[in-house]
Amino acid sequence: MTASSSLSRRNSTTHLIGLLLGTENDWPRAFETLTKRLDPINHRGRQHHVDTERITIEPFDLRDPVRHDVVIDRLAWWYYHPREWLKKAALVNDTYLINNPFTFQAMEKHSAYCAMIRLGFDIPATVLVPYKNPVDHEKWAYTAESYNLVFDLDEVASRVGYPMYMKPFDGGAWRGVSRIEDNAALHRAYDESGQMLMHLQAAAQYDSFARSLTIGPETKIMRFRPELPMHDRYEVSHDFLPPEAGMEILTLSRTINAFFRWEFNSCESLVTGTSVRPIDYANACPDIAITSLHYYFPWAITQLVSWSVFCAVTGRRPRVDTNSREWYDVADDPDLNWADKLGRYALMSDQYFEADTYREFCSTALASLPEIVYDWITSAEFDALLMETVRSTYPPHEQERFLAHLRGLIGLWVADQR
């Protein structure tokens, strides 16, 4: 660093964003590159520098300082040591976390269903059934003999109705998910569930399967094709939903995040006409891979950089607890119809995310970011990252085909920006 740049840093504010990662390398490289190209950021008459760092896992003292202003967590949903470090960072050091490990640990998909039912969203019929196999606990035998009632799985299934899905109450990358068409499939899937705690959830007919990715106060609704291979599931299709359904999904996505203090999350909804049925909306590690998002990747990385930088530069304060009562007061108000409630939920979500302040920040302090993203996406550096990602993802005999596929979809995004 030169003497002049050192002086500049002393007369400005420096922030550090930590990346807590698993196996991914594509979006972290993009995030690091774009954040560096934004430097410096001017906000309210002061210069800000935002650095990034990949966080390593090591022993930590509960009183240790934390250098990071913001941490993007992609690991702690399954790896408990960094989860506990995140909790300490939030409780002791006031570090801003994306996402909130407290509610993801305690609530996950099951409680998300419950909360959204409570708020009035049209969740398909869902039943939680006991474990098929005993849990590994010395008190299990006595508790099961004394208190676990014998139940008729077929009778439970008849109340839910065929076809249905059996899926783990806490989710996780489609593990253990089965479509159940009849009693034989029901018993086969339940026998195979082992010590996973399972939901039975009614299947629903639909015109469109929508997956919405929400980062901060911004949401992108994408047409999703779950029956196709991952690289083809996000179909480039604009205006595929009626406006009323699109607005309900936008509100649903932001409501869930504001309610649980999640800020980087994807939701899945089945849409028939203007009717929206949410089926999955608690994803601690939402898909943001280049190889699956392709056309939508530039939008996603732009929003992730924008929201993370906003939280760091403005000193956004973390809130690990929830304010469920104020949401339930809206849900229980007899004078409000469903449209009114959606409007209130949208307003409360915007207030939590400081949506107006954030968008003003994006239009001023981050005004150069869209052009920076465009220049990088159209550069040889990005193409090299694309090739590297394809080579690490697909077998050699398929790499050229997938590279051409991804280049074509990225090219479509580039054409749409002109």
Mean pLDDT: 91
Q: Specify the structural class.
A: alpha+beta
Shape: globular
Strand order in the largest sheet: 2-3-1-4-5
Question: In total, how many beta strands?
Answer: 14
Question: How many H/I helical runs?
Answer: 17
Number of domains: 3
- Biggest sheet architecture: 5 strands, mixed
Percent in helix: 40-55%
Tell me the Rg in angstroms.
23 Å
Q: Estimate the strand proportion.
A: 15-25%
Uncertain stretches = 1-10
* N→C terminal distance: 37 Å
Description of the molecule:
With 418 residues, the protein is of the alpha+beta class. The protein has three domains: 3-103, Rossmann fold (3-Layer(aba) Sandwich), CATH 3.40.50; 125-202, ATP-grasp fold, A domain (Dna Ligase, domain 1), CATH 3.30.1490; 208-371, no CATH class. The protein contains 17 helices and 14 strands. It has helices at 3-10, 26-38, 80-93, 101-106, 108-119, 140-147, 153-160, 183-193, 243-260, 290-293, 297-313, 324-331, 338-353, 355-364, 369-377, 380-393, 399-417; strands at residues 13-20, 41-43, 46-54, 70-73, 96-98, 126-129, 164-168, 178-180, 198-202, 208-215, 218-224, 234-235, 264-272, 275-280. The strands form three sheets. A five-stranded mixed beta sheet has the order 2-3-1-4-5, sandwiched between helices. A hairpin with a 2-residue loop joins strand 10 and strand 11. The relative contact order is 0.13. Mean pLDDT is 91; it is low at 1-10.
